[in-house]
Amino acid sequence: MTDEGTAVDTRPTKIMYVAEATAHGGRDGYVTSQDGQLELKVAMPPALGGDGNGTNPEQLFAAGYSSCFHNALILVGNREGYDLSGSTVAAKVGIGPNKHRGYGLAVALSVSLPVLDAGLAEKLVDAAHEVCPYSNATRGNIDVTILLG
Fold first, then answer.
1. Maximum Cα–Cα distance for the chain, whole Å?
2. What mean pLDDT comes out for the span 43-64?
3. SS3 15
4. Residue 77 and residue 90: Cα distance in Å, rounded?
5. Among residues 42, 41, 87, 40, which one has the least CA distance to residue 67?
6. So what's the pLDDT on residue 8?
7. Could you tell me how far CA 6 lies from the centroid of its own chain?
8. Residue 43: helix, strand or coil by DSSP?
9. Secondary element (H or E) of residue 57
10. Sheet holding 103-112, edge to edge
11. Are 75 and 69 in contact (CB under 8 A)?
12. pLDDT, tens only, 99-144
C-alpha cells in the first residue's frame, strides 16, 4: 500500500520464467515438475489426519518462500554493499480453517543476519519484503510475520 492507501501494482511486466508442476492424487499422491527435477510423494500430515508419509503443500510453500525471501535479502544486501554470507531465512507455514468454510494460511519468517546490527538488519529485511515475489503475492492475503533473530 502507498501512504494514500492505494494498492501498489506488483504484477510482472515481463514473464522471465515459468515453472510447471502437476499434482496426482491431491494431498495423498505425488507431484512432478515438467522438467523432471521434482518428483515427490505428498501426504496429509498427522495433524490433519494423515500418516505424514510424504511432504505436503505447506512444506513446499515454506521451502519456496524461505528460499525466495532469502534470495531477495541477499539481492538488497548486495545492492547496499553488504555481504550476507551466513544469513538464513526459515519459514513456518500454518494452515487452518477460515471464516468462510475454507482454509487459510499464515506464515512466519525467521531471519538471521548475524553480522549486522539490528537497525540495518531491519532495513534490509523491509526492503527484501518489498522485492520478494512471494511477499508481493501474499501481501494483504495472508498474515506474514517476520522475526529477526
1. 49
2. 97
3. coil
4. 18
5. 87
6. 86
7. 24
8. coil
9. helix 57-79
10. 88-97, 103-112, 143-148
11. no
12. 999 999 999 999 999 989 999 999 999 999 999 999 999 999 999 9
